Request: fold
Amino acid sequence: MNRGKSFAACALLAFAGTVSAQQMDQERAERAVETRQALLQVMAWNYGPMGAMARGRIEFDTDRVQTNAERLLALTKMLSDAFAADTRENDVETEALDVIWEKTDDFAAKIQATIDASSALVDAAATGDEAAMTQAIGQVGSSCGSCHDDFRLDD
Reply:
């Protein structure tokens, strides 16, 4: 093979490798978005009934609060990992704002506040005190909402 053909073959292989890497990055970004959206949906599925109880929309169920609070705490501890992949440069459908990866310390502080509020809810649920649970449920909702205000696209 002459030198020109060798160079062309190498260039073609290098280009193909770049395209494959970009496609892999896109696939990874799509999986990252799907994972974090699924995590947030499961968090909402666990928080929703507690919020309804705190607002008096459904009957208060201490056992359910205890179960859902424990689940929620475990889920909130996954948030940092779920948002570790910076998907700003990828073409993905997401409500996550770029500021998540621009102000990582602020985002981490919001996540920690949600973990702390969820932990306080677990503690309140262990007491069986409905008033304490209601207050703690509100704190979790406030911490979630605070993060959404700063880091999620408005609906």
Summary: The radius of gyration is 22 Å.
